[in-house]
């Protein structure tokens, strides 16, 4: 694996820490788009065409241009610093693929729950899932063109989130924006682990 390597004192070569992050959220919220935008390697995708048979099940309102859906996962990688590499796993958005989540989320440090304010309730299954597992997560509102903008507190309230769960705005198509979301998640996850294990005095 071609990790970025950094020279340590004494000539040792340090291997960066690899951390697994999930990109979750409802159908068509922009998970595959975000993994593709931030990944520095060509992302692995498992897209299948949306078919007419699925019309009644797959609600594309708001994302009418969408022709495919993720059926297993997305995978990408981003180097945050010389010491830290993130492996990104995008989940499938449809409830019928929920059975895959346990395997996908094994060993994950945290999750980004992408939300679309036009279809906010679609991210409830992801939020419930991470709350139940105790996986640190943040909510990233993907600002689709034409969608009404809400204050972060409104989104927090509407989703009935623990006040400690950060809500951030993003554009899933922009690399810099996706990176900011991931950094916000890392900071939140670090805070969560400190809260869970306060230093012994
Ligand atoms: N305008 C706009 N369109 C977006 C944005 N993010 C994604 N899209 C479009 O919205 C559609 C859905 O994007 P995907 O990335 O496939 O969504 P997904 O969450 O991976 O979908 P599933 O895997 O099927 O659940 C695509 O047609 C994207 O081009 C965004 O930030 N703004
Ligand atoms: Mg997808």
Q: Mind telling me the CATH superfamily name? A: P-loop containing nucleotide triphosphate hydrolases
> What order do the SSEs take from the amino end to the carboxyl end, as H and E?
EEEHEEEEHEHEHEH
- The radius of gyration is 17 Å
Q: What ions, cofactors and ligands are bound?
A: guanosine-5'-triphosphate, magnesium ion
Count the beta strands. 10
**Total domains:** 1
CATH second-level architecture: 3-Layer(aba) Sandwich
> What is the CATH fold-level name?
Rossmann fold
Distance between the termini: 41 Å
Strands side by side in the biggest sheet = 6-7-3-8-9-10
- Which structural class matches the secondary elements? alpha/beta
Mean pLDDT: 90
- Report helical residue fraction: 25-40%
The backbone outline, from C-alpha atoms, is globular
Uncertain parts = none
Please state roughly what percent of the residues sit in beta strands, choosing from under 5%, 5-15%, 15-25%, 25-35%, 35-45% or over 45%.
15-25%
* Total DSSP helices: 5
CATH class term: Alpha Beta
Largest sheet: 6 strands, mixed
Polypeptide structure, described:
- This protein has five helices and ten strands, in the order E-E-E-H-E-E-E-E-H-E-H-E-H-E-H.
- It is α/β, with parallel strands linked by helices and 201 residues long.
- It has a single domain, classed as Rossmann fold, CATH 3.40.50.
- The strands form three sheets. A six-stranded mixed beta sheet has the order 6-7-3-8-9-10, sandwiched between helices. A two-stranded antiparallel sheet has the order 1-2.
- Strand 1 and strand 2 form a beta hairpin.
- The model has no long low-confidence stretch (mean pLDDT 90).
- The structure holds guanosine-5'-triphosphate and magnesium ion.
- Guanosine-5'-triphosphate (GTP) binds next to helix 1 and strand 5.
